[in-house]
């Protein structure tokens, strides 16, 4: 099993390298030692020879066996010599433990002692190779031993240094890094003595990294909190809003709605509770095709649209109007959704109608008032001008209304006015105009078809009849009334309203003069 | 010390020049030995050979141990100082196998011995040469005079 600890690995590599180096060095040193030892041995042999050279020469010179034997014995007594052979020119051969094996042999020529160049013999010495080898081996082993000790010392030193310089600091850094929780305020402490080296740099860089991670985490937390708050607010806004909010998919089915929307459209929703998740939005409305077209348009153009729409008939039977605002939003997948905002404007709608009505009508008689009436009349004239038709305009003034007011009180007068108005209204058609100009003056206007004089006369007579029929007040008191009517025909009597009015007014006063007496008579009669 | 040494050497040279004469190796006139080579003379005197060819045993005689003639003889014959020769014999004496030539007391003795014994060989100063002996080798000890 191999340990993966850094210091062990480095030590192993260094040790292996040192061992390889030691083996190589040993091999080299072995061969060097061998040759050196061999040389030294040869040198020793030469020296050895030189001590017996003289005797050997003499022995060879004299062919003296005794002397030769002495020489040979004395040589072979040395432990570096394994065998000696002395031979002379005359055939004398003396040997000592001479082996015929193929061993290293040193030969020395023997010269005559007195004549310089006469070789008289030869001496051969065999090296003691066993000794040589054992010496070489011993020397090599010693060297090896020293190297092995060196290797061991180096390995131990490297191990200790690695431990002290690298592994312990890195372990302490790793341990403290392990303890650090991202986002904490803890920093790594640099191991002592490493402030300026790579470990110090590492610690600093890690601290920088931790710091930036911390900043990021803080920022993230801050943003997340803010997001959560925002989301809460938005949800609150969405859920508690008084306006109904909803989201439609592009097929106009409801995706989500808030409580307000449920409340506003509640009953309709409840009706569809069985199919709650699949409500077709236009179905909620009275005129669903309009809503559908509108939504299609919004989806097509991408523009906002706002309008008032009537909800589909509620079970309570009442009308319900919603002001709707549609706009396009894109969801995360890029689909177009329709976001909508609805406000219940039912009451407002009715209020508006009431105000409009009141502004256009006389509070007492519910007839058009002067301002609205004039506008209608002008419109009618413009219409008639376009269609080339005639309009009969009649100005009606009640006769003796002041006397009724004076004699019977204002309540009675009001009752008379209401009754008169009701009667006139029963005569005219829907498209005709009936106005109370003010006080006891009224205007009736209606178009007359080509050659419709009979019709206008009929209306006039009907009107006369209605206006002269006496009115019975609440307490059973009959009140006689009468009216003066002046008429004008557009375009015969004038092309604009004021001219026509003046004409009608004039006609009415002439009639009033003629009928003064009968009215008085009426009064007198009562 | 050095001065004495140099003076002594100079003195010795003078003496030797004075005393120097060629040396002749002599044998009995009846000896079959007529001419010997230097090598043969060396070998005879160094104990290597005891006869030349088919002659009888040859017995070499030497001049007295410390005589100038002996020193000169060996010096000129072997090219080595007499001390070397002395050491040679001393070395051989230990083995007990070889013995150096017999020594005589003066020049005349050699002549006498050679005259009496035909197997004897000796060397003498050429100035002492007479008809009783015959020369087999002559050693020129000095340059031409």
Give your account of this protein's structure:
- The complex is a heterodimer of chains A (526) and B (145).
- With 526 residues, chain A is of the alpha+beta class.
- Chain A folds into three domains: 6-135, Beta-Lactamase; 241-350, PAS domain (Beta-Lactamase); 363-525, Alpha-Beta Plaits.
- Chain A has helices at 6-62, 65-76, 129-179, 198-240, 259-264, 266-271, 288-301, 346-360, 370-387, 401-408, 410-427, 453-468, 497-514, 516-525, and strands at 81-88, 93-96, 105-111, 119-127, 244-248, 254-257, 305-310, 321-330, 336-344, 390-399, 433-438, 441-448, 471-472, 478-479, 482-490.
- In chain A, helix 1 packs antiparallel against helix 2.
- The longest helix of chain A is centred in the N-terminal third of the chain and has 57 residues, at 6-62.
- By secondary structure, chain B is of the alpha/beta class.
- Chain B is globular.
- Classes of the chains: A alpha+beta (526), B alpha/beta (145).
Please describe the topology of this protein:
The complex is a heterodimer of chains A (526) and B (145).
Chain A: H1 6-62, H2 65-76, E1 81-88, E2 93-96, E3 105-111, E4 119-127, H3 129-179, H4 198-240, E5 244-248, E6 254-257, H5 259-264, H6 266-271, H7 288-301, E7 305-310, E8 321-330, E9 336-344, H8 346-360, H9 370-387, E10 390-399, H10 401-408, H11 410-427, E11 433-438, E12 441-448, H12 453-468, E13 471-472, E14 478-479, E15 482-490, H13 497-514, H14 516-525
Helix pairs in contact in A: 1-2, 1-3, 10-11, 11-12
Chain B: H1 2-19, E1 23-27, H2 38-45, E2 59-62, H3 68-78, H4 82-95, E3 102-103, H5 107-116, E4 120-125, E5 134-139
Parallel strand pairs in B: 2-3, 2-4
Antiparallel strand pairs in B: 1-4, 1-5
Q: How would you classify the quaternary structure? A: heterodimer
Based on DSSP secondary structure assignment, what is the total number of beta strands of chain A?
Answer: 15
Q: Which strand order do you get reading across the main beta sheet of chain B? A: 3-2-4-1-5
The biggest beta sheet of chain B reads:
5 strands, mixed
Can you count the helices of chain A?
A: 14
Which class best fits the helix and strand makeup of chain B?
alpha/beta
End-to-end CA span of chain B: 34 Å
Average pLDDT reading of chain A: 82
Number of helical stretches of at least 4 residues of chain B = 5
The third-level CATH topology of the largest domain in chain A is Alpha-Beta Plaits
For the record, the CATH class of the domain at 36-133 in chain B is Alpha Beta
Question: What is the CATH architecture descriptor of the largest domain in chain A?
Answer: 2-Layer Sandwich
Q: What is the percent of helical residues of chain B?
A: 40-55%
Low-confidence spans of chain A: pLDDT under 50, at least 5 residues? 519-526
């Amino acid at each position: 099993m191999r340990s993966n600890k850094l210091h062990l690995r480095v030590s192993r590599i260094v040790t292996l390298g040192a061992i390889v180096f030691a083996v190589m060095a040993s091999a080299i040193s072995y061969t060097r030692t061998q040759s050196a030892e061999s040389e030294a041995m040869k040198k020793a042999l030469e020296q050895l020879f030189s001590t017996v050279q003289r005797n050997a020469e003499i022995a060879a010179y004299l062919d003296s066996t005794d002397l030769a034997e002495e020489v040979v014995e004395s040589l072979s007594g040395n432990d570096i010599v394994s065998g000696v052979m002395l031979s002379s020119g005359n055939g004398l051969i003396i040997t000592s433990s001479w082996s015929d094996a193929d061993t290293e042999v040193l030969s020395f020529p023997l010269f005559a002692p007195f004549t310089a160049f006469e070789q008289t013999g030869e001496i051969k010495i065999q090296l003691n190779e066993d000794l040589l080898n054992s010496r070489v081996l011993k020397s090599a082993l010693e060297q090896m031993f020293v190297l092995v000790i060196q290797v061991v010392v180096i390995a131990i030193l490297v191990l200790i240094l690695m431990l002290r310089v690298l592994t312990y600091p890195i372990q302490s850094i790793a341990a403290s890094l392990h303890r650090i929780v991202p986002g904490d305020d803890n920093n790594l402490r640099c191991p002592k003595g490493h402030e300026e080296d790579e470990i110090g740099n590492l610690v600093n860089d890690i601290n920088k990294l931790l710091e930036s991670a911390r900043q990021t985490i803080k920022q993230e937390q801050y943003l997340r909190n803010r997001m959560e708050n925002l989301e809460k607010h938005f949800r609150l806004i969405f859920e508690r809003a008084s306006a109904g909010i909803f989201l439609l998919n592009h097929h106009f089915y409801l995706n989500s709605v808030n409580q307000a929307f449920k409340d506003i459209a509640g009953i309709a929703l409840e009706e569809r509770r069985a199919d709650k998740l699949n409500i077709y939005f236009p179905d909620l409305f009275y005129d669903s095709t309009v809503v559908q077209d509108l939504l299609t348009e919004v989806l097509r153009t991408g523009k906002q649209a706002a309008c008032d729409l009537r909800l589909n008939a509620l079970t309570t039977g009442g009308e319900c109007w919603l002001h709707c605002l549609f706009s396009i939003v894109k969801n995360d997948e890029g689909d177009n959704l329709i976001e909508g905002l609805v406000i219940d404007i039912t009451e407002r709608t009715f209020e508006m109608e009431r105000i409009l009505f009141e502004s256009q009508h006389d509070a007492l008689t519910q007839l058009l008032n002067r301002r609205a009436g004039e506008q209608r009349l002008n419109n009618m004239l413009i219409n008639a001008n376009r269609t080339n038709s005639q309009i009969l305009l009649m100005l009606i003034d009640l006769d003796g209304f002041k006397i009724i007011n004076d004699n019977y009180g204002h309540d009675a007068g009001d009752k008379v006015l209401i009754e008169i108005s009701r009667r006139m209204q029963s005569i005219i058609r829907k498209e005709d105009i009936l106005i109370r100009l003010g006080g006891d003056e009224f205007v009736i206007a209606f178009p007359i078809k080509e050659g419709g004089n009979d019709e206008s006369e009929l209306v006039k007579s009907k009107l006369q009849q209605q206006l002269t029929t006496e009115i019975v007040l609440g307490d059973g008191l009959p009140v006689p009334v009468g009216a003066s009517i002046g008429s004008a025909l557009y375009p015969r009597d004038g092309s604009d309203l004021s001219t026509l009015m003046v004409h009608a007014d004039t006609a009415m006063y002439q009639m009033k003069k003629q009928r003064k007496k009968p009215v008085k008579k009426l009064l007198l009669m009562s | 010390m050095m001065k004495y040494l140099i003076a002594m050497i100079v003195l010795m040279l003078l003496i030797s020049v004075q005393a120097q004469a060629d040396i002749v190796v002599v044998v009995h006139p009846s000896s079959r030995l007529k001419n010997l080579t230097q090598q043969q003379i060396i070998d005879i005197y160094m104990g290597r050979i005891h006869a030349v060819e088919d002659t009888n045993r040859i017995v070499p005689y030497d001049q007295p141990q410390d005589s100038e003639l002996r020193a000169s003889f060996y010096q000129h014959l072997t090219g080595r100082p007499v001390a070397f020769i002395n050491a040679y014999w001393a070395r051989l004496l230990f083995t007990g196998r070889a013995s150096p030539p017999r020594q005589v007391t003066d020049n005349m003795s050699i002549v006498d011995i050679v005259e009496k014994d035909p197997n004897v060989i000796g060397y003498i100063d050429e100035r002492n040469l007479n008809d009783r002996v015959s020369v087999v080798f002559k050693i020129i000890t000095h340059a031409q005079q």
